[in-house]
Amino acid sequence: MTRTAAARAPGRVNLIGEHTDYNAGLCLPIALPHDTLAVATTTEEPRVRISSEQQPDSWTGALADCGPGGPRGWVSYVAGVLWALEQDGYDVPTGLDLHVTSTVPLGAGLSSSAALEVSVAVAVHALTGRDLDLAERTRLVEVCRRAETEVVGAPTGGLDQNASLLCDVDSALLLDFADASLTPIPLGFSAADLVVTVIDTRVSHALTDGDYGSRRRECESAAERLGVTTLRETDLDALSGLDDDVLRRRARHVVSENRRVRDATTAIARGDWERLGALFSASHVSLRDDFEVSCPELDLAVAAALGAGALGARMTGGGFGGSAIALVPRSGLPALRAAVDTAFAAAGHDAPAHLDAPPSAAARVVPRRP
């Protein structure tokens, strides 16, 4: 008899704390309402079939072929999860149909990849009959991270998978990658009549194109020269000991960004929205100048948003394209979006897309589709 399970997993917006996860640092993401739905159905025939509503190509093969060196492209994210689940001791069916559909924009820096991985992991997990408690969610974070790093080949640090599996409604999640602690941070945006809006520049980015990996290697080199294991173990004063200007700027971003995350949680607790906005904007400057992961479209989106009354704005995600976010009074949202559109048109850029970003629920099992 066949069995079916379905799961939804959200994309994410990182409010602040960029390129800090793989440096044992601090991050503050929220989950998006945009998500990926995965439907997993067991089959009598011992083969895996992977398909998508958004992609023209599908893949059929054996479970044994899902690991490193297996299928490429978008399929590798799904196949990698099956491999990582089996590696971690889960009883993955050898006969399986997996079909996915998503509302998370691709290449927008909103972690469509983690939403895909997590939705598949949770759907297949449901077929095992296990409860999806906190321990299992935490275990699946590592399963999905391994899929992305060891099968897909993207050297990510785990921020996206944690956000998709562990965030909650009306809250951000303070992630500390030094001790793996998780702290929910209640957000008062609605009570303050504020919204976080996403500006998708439509400049597609990919974490496997080499630039992301080079930043990670530069951070590791900076830590080695400073005589520490990770950049979490140093401070701004110590960076004067780095005689390489590039490495010093990379390290300065990471160290100062961790401080900004701490300051942001304090500002949120106090309802000091002007301060939070200023931290967002300072983060963007650091990412643009010290870490050099912005692009003209992201810089324009941030500048236009600030000019239109945003309390703060910054790029979000790995960079090299993707999206920016802005913290804005709800009443000012239409004018802000119009100003950004006007600025893009004047610069000759393609029109951006705008998304609402209310802090939303983490991945969950859902009733099977009819």
Characterise the protein shown here.
There is one protein chain. By secondary structure, the chain is of the alpha+beta class. The chain is 38% helix and 22% strand. It contains nine helices and twelve strands. The strands form two sheets. Strands 1, 2, 3, 4, 5, 6, 7 and 12 form an eight-stranded mixed sheet that branches. A four-stranded antiparallel sheet has the order 9-10-8-11. A hairpin with a 4-residue loop joins strand 6 and strand 7. Helix 2 packs across helix 3, helix 3 runs antiparallel to helix 4 and helix 8 crosses helix 9. The chain starts with a strand and ends with a strand. The model has no long low-confidence stretch (mean pLDDT 95).
Biggest sheet architecture = 8 strands, mixed
User: SSE order, as H and E?
Assistant: EEEEHEHHHEEEHHHHEEHEE
Shape: globular
The share of residues in helices is 25-40%
Distance between the termini: 17 Å
Uncertain residue segments: none
Structural class: alpha+beta
Overall mean pLDDT stands at 95
The total of beta strands comes to: 12
Offer a concise description of the structure.
With 370 residues, the protein is an alpha+beta fold. Helices cover 38% and strands 22% of the residues.
